[in-house]
Amino acid sequence: MIREISTREIIKAVRDLSMDANYNLGNDVLLALNQALEKEDPGTAREVIKELIENARIAREEKVPICQDCGLAVVFVEIGQDVHIIGGDLRQAINEGVRQGYTDGYLRKSACHPITRKNTGDNTPAIIHLQIVPGDRMRIILAPKGGGSENMSRVDMLTPAAGIEGVKDYVVRRVKESGPNPCPPTIVGVGVGGTFERSAILAKKALLRNIGDRNPDPELAEIEEEILTRINRLGIGPMGYGGNSTSLDVFLEIEPCHIASLPVAINIQCHAARHKEAVI
Amino acid sequence: MSKQIRLRTPLSTEDVENLRIGDRVLLNGVLLTGRDAAHKRLFDLIKEGKELPIDINGQVIYYVGPTPPKPGKPIGSAGPTTSYRMDPYAPKLIELGLKGMIGKGNRSQAVIEAMKRFKAVYFGATGGAGALLAQRIKKAEIVAYPDLGPEAIRVLEAEDFPVIVINDTKGNDLYTEGIKRYAKV
């Protein structure tokens, strides 16, 4: 049976998600920040984490953005193959939702022309990833992505000889080199395999998990934990002032790749890890 | 152990020379804002030998692009942006009398050298704490480049705006010292 979904519903969902994601820090992040507080000595590191927890409270209660960088609107849409979209163009609807959410919600518009640097004025176009899935529903995940942590992200093509140890070293080294820049404590998304561009999308998708959600494959889960432990021994700490919590979690996603390649992408996410979803 | 200090802008050379990395400072008075695009314009004016639209002598520039204010509020969320993007411009502004910068993240060696030579400091504000930091800003007024939107130059009136000294006038770096203290590798 074909189920109809109107672009009006999509616009409203995206509009509401834009505001919800920017005002309300996820409970998983709040819990992780509270746990990080326990791991730090009294002093600057603790003070910073306390500020972040207090900041989240103010943002939620006053309905103001957690961070002034309300990000580019990254939108993952899973469309059931039995869905028929009516009332207009899907991409236009998503962009209209972003436009309304970022304008009505007093969110910062951070999208600009890459060369002239002229601001597009309404935070569009959104970065849209579409996927067709079984079913008759539509799942929309909106994940605002700030520039500071995105700038510290990288894709590299390792040699197969580098192997999993090469991947682990690469991720830890990248976090070390990023130092204070991506607003630690961070969350680290790692995509291994696929092609050049697929690895980056895997890394981005990995960041949609909630903190503490391990990869269901026990071997990969173990690698996630090992990388996290190594990162937290670097000493970078909250805001890079020194401490034991440099990252709150590491998420690893893999896919088969070419016999000649070992693509690795690392997408760094600041502590303002924002993602909200709606199902229509 | 770091101490907490309350300072009022504009800052004197003596004010900044007394600061050490890790000191927690509450800034009061005027803060100027500016980020990528505004810095480029200021730098171009300096290159052309023209007058700047703002007086930077003794001032502190906050690297911030705030969100639009809600009705009745002076400013929206207003946390720091990453500072290294302003590194190409900062040494010249420091030479011209800028006494402080507020941002987050590493500075280049050239900026650290300029801070030593011309006596200025680099403060860190907590990145991603934009809602909290906005409460310490009592007034905001655009004074140059309104066409840049969030990147326009604003004059802020700050009240006990909390920052920490990352680079002092002696060439010390809080990030380097912090890692030395906590690294377990």
What composes the largest sheet of chain B?
A: 5 strands, mixed, barrel
- SSE sequence of chain B, one letter per element: EHEHEHEHEHEEH
Tell me the span between the first and last alpha carbons of chain B. Answer: 24 Å
Question: How many structural domains in the coordinates of chain B?
Answer: 1
Q: Write down the domain tally of chain A.
A: 2
How are the strands ordered across the major sheet of chain B?
Answer: 2-3-4-5-7
Unreliable runs of chain A? none
Q: What's the mean pLDDT score of chain B?
A: 94
Strand order of the largest sheet of chain A: 4-2-5-10
According to CATH, the homologous superfamily of chain B is Fe-S hydro-lyase, tartrate dehydratase beta-type, catalytic domain
Description:
Chain A has two domains: 3-22 and 66-145, no CATH class; 148-273, no CATH class. Helix content of chain A is 39%, strand content 25%. Chain A has helices spanning 7-23, 27-39, 44-62, 90-104, 147-150, 163-178, 196-206, 218-232, and strands at residues 3-6, 72-80, 83-86, 127-133, 138-145, 154-158, 186-194, 247-257, 262-269, 276-279. In chain A, the strands form three sheets. Chain A has a four-stranded mixed beta sheet with strand order 4-2-5-10. Chain A has a four-stranded mixed beta sheet with strand order 6-9-7-8. Chain A has a two-stranded parallel sheet with strand order 1-3. In chain A, helix 2 runs antiparallel to helix 3. Chain B contains six helices and seven strands; from the N terminus they run E-H-E-H-E-H-E-H-E-H-E-E-H. Chain B is globular. The two termini of chain B are 24 Å apart. At the A-B interface, helix 3 of A face helix 5 and helix 6 of B.
